[in-house]
Amino acid sequence: MINEDKHRNLDLLQRTAGMSANQRLVVMLYALHPTDRAGAVIETAVNLAELVGMSPSVFSRTRRQVVEAGWLEESDRLAHIKYYRLSPKATGENVVVELRRAT
Questions:
Q1: What is the pTM (predicted TM-score) of this model?
Q2: Virtual CA dihedral for 35, 79, 70, 22, nearest 10 degrees?
Q3: Can you tell which superkingdom this protein's organism belongs to (predicted)?
Q4: How many domains, the chain?
Q5: What is residue 5's three-state secondary structure?
Q6: What is the 3-state secondary structure (H, E, C) of 6-72?
């Protein structure tokens, strides 16, 4: 299981090669941080920013760019606090079921 997680994270790191360093750092932070059952990282932007040494405003701006690029998606909201998780683009999961002709 640990090798599978390691392989998945290395694959994600490789697929984000065209992004800025801050964008990659945010994506990898969400990939490596503990999540709830829905896959959401239940931590505030202030705490996550502090963890990686960014100012909260830079972290929020970078996270917004990553969301717009489709690597993260909003999962839950508690009052004014939004929680995010990796999107299917980031996890590499194929969530679209191919249609096939009825016979």
A1: 0.82
A2: -70
A3: Bacteria
A4: 1
A5: helix
A6: HHHHHHHHHHCCCCCHHHHHHHHHHHHCCCCCCCEECCCHHHHHHHHCCCHHHHHHHHHHHHHCCCE
Average pLDDT of adjacent 10-residue blocks, the chain of 103 residues: 82 92 95 90 92 95 95 87 90 66 69
Distance of CA 67 to the CA centre of its chain: 8
Q: Tell me the CATH number at 54.
A: 1.10.10.10
CA distance 81 to 65: 18
Q: What are 25's two structure tokens?
A: 């750092």
Predicted confidence at residue 103, as pLDDT, reads 64
Residue 49: domain span? 2-91
**Which pLDDT does position 99 carry in this prediction?**
65
